[in-house]
Amino acid sequence: MNLGPWEIVIIILFVIILFGGKKLPELARGLALGLKEFKKTTREIKDEVQHAADEVNGDEKEPQN
User: Fold this and answer.
1) Which residues contact 24 (CB under 8 A, 6 or more apart)?
2) pLDDT, tens digit, for every residue of 12-36?
3) Computed from CA positions of residues 39, 43, 49, 52, in that sequence, does the dihedral angle turn out positive or negative?
4) CA–CA distance, 41 with 63 (Å, rounded to integer)
5) So what's the pLDDT on residue 64?
């Protein structure tokens, strides 16, 4: 689904009408904080999975006596 420039303009106008100009900075700030937290959590999960995979691969490479 691709949005053209006119669709984006209509969506922005709808948001401005719905929430008003004074509420937009607050909404944008909340959205930015949510995205920041989502990226942080995603990075932490990725690092944890990578660490677990490295441990498993490290255990398999050790010679057994």
Assistant:
1) 15, 16
2) 888 888 888 788 888 889 989 999 9
3) negative
4) 36
5) 55
Contact 15, 24 (CB under 8 A): yes
User: In residues, how long is the chain?
Assistant: 65
The span from the CA of 13 to the CA of 35, in Å, is 23
Cα–Cα–Cα angle for 24, 42, 3, rounded to 5 degrees: 45
Q: Are 44 and 52 in contact (CB under 8 A)?
A: no
Structure-token match 């937290």, residue found:
37
Q: Residues near 3 by Cβ (< 8 Å), separated by ≥ 6?
A: 11
pTM of the shown model: 0.55
Q: Convert the pLDDT of each residue in 38-64 to its tens digit.
A: 999 999 999 999 999 998 888 655 555
